[in-house]
């Protein structure tokens, strides 16, 4: 089943700059998809169009094969933009996490169940009584993600979810995204970071620098096509560069490369 289907999307900023130019995107239920491209490629704008946060100048988006009105499926669709402050506006973290399900008219007991469940998964239980502005940057990222998850969406769209966070917060967020994918949640992640892509996506929609799609393929095929990435002002993951030409089955992450070397020792990187 198709979760999101966008057809011929076009959007220009108020100054006339074209951000998205005739983009078609289809995302199936349960997929993990990365919107990959350099800064200025229109990734964030495309994510907001797919999430129904802004209206296209032309073209349209259909959700779950049912409707073009994103507001009617808000209980199934969550969007997390780059700025955590957009989601943290209540006096405490607990109230921010409760806000979404309360707007869906969930009962008090159900709201509390969702808050406790998500807070536990993102290690936020000790922060629930704190004002959001007193959290660190990484804690704010986790709290904002938690607020998007308490509506228990079928589809989660994330704009650079681990930018400017430390290693511990990154590991927590990526671990949860793995759990969500295993639970069948559809994930769409916008990023300029080729190192992140193997951790969050199986398929890539690659944007060029003019708001158009340069390619769409598996994460492996995109990330190992060094010339294609260079044409889009991107570099492949470092481990891909290290193993280029050494093996047909290039590992995409450092962990996978280490496991390969531990298993057979057949690839020697000097």
Automatic annotation (TrEMBL):
Give the matching Gene3D superfamilies: P-loop containing nucleotide triphosphate hydrolases
Q: Which PROSITE patterns match?
A: ABC_TRANSPORTER_1, ABC_TRANSPORTER_2
List, alphabetically, the Pfam families matched.
ABC_tran (PF00005)
Compartments annotated for it: namely: Cell membrane
Q: Origin, by domain of life?
A: Archaea
Q: Name one GO molecular function term.
A: ATP binding
Keywords per UniProt: ATP-binding, Membrane, Nucleotide-binding, Transport
Q: Does the keyword Membrane apply?
A: yes
Q: Which InterPro entries match?
A: AAA+_ATPase, ABC_transporter-like_ATP-bd, ABC_transporter-like_CS, ABC_transpr_CbiO/EcfA_su, ECF_ABC_transporter_ATP-bd, P-loop_NTPase
Q: What are the record's GO terms for cellular component?
A: ATP-binding cassette (ABC) transporter complex
Membrane-topology descriptor: Peripheral membrane protein
Q: Which residues form the ABC transporter domain?
A: 4-234
The family line of this record is: Belongs to the ABC transporter superfamily.
Q: What does this protein do?
A: Probably part of an ABC transporter complex. Responsible for energy coupling to the transport system.
Q: What is this protein called?
A: Cobalt ABC transporter ATP-binding protein
What species is given as this protein's source?
A: Haloarcula vallismortis ATCC 29715
Taxonomy, top ranks, is:
Archaea, Methanobacteriati, Methanobacteriota, Stenosarchaea group, Halobacteria
């Amino acid at each position: 089943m198709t979760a999101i289907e966008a057809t011929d999307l076009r959007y220009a900023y108020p100054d006339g700059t074209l951000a998205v130019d005739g983009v078609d995107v289809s995302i199936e239920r349960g997929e993990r998809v990365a919107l990959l491209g350099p800064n200025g490629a229109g990734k964030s704008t495309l994510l907001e169009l797919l999430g129904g946060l802004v209206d296209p100048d032309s073209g349209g988006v259909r959700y779950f094969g049912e409707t073009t009105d994103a507001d009617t499926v808000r209980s199934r669709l969550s969007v997390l933009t780059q700025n955590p402050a957009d989601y943290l506006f209540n006096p405490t973290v607990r109230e921010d996490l409760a806000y979404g399900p309360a707007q869906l008219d969930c009962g008090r007991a159900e709201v509390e169940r969702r808050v406790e469940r998500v807070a536990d998964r993102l290690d936020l239980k000790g922060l629930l009584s704190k004002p959001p502005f007193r959290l660190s940057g990484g804690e704010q990222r986790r709290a904002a993600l938690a607020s998007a998850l308490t509506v228990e969406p079928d589809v989660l769209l994330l704009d650079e979810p681990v930018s400017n966070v430390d290693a511990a917060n990154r590991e927590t967020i990526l671990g949860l995204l793995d759990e969500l994918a295993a639970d069948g949640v559809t994930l769409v992640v916008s990023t300029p970071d080729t190192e992140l892509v193997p951790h969050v996506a199986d398929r890539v929609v690659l944007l060029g620098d003019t708001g158009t799609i340069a390619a769409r393929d598996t994460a492996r095929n995109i990330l190992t096509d060094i010339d294609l990435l260079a044409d889009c002002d991107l570099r492949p993951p470092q481990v891909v560069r290290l193993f280029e030409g050494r093996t047909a089955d290039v590992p995409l992450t450092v962990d996978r490369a280490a496991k390969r070397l531990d298993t057979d020792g057949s690839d020697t990187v000097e």
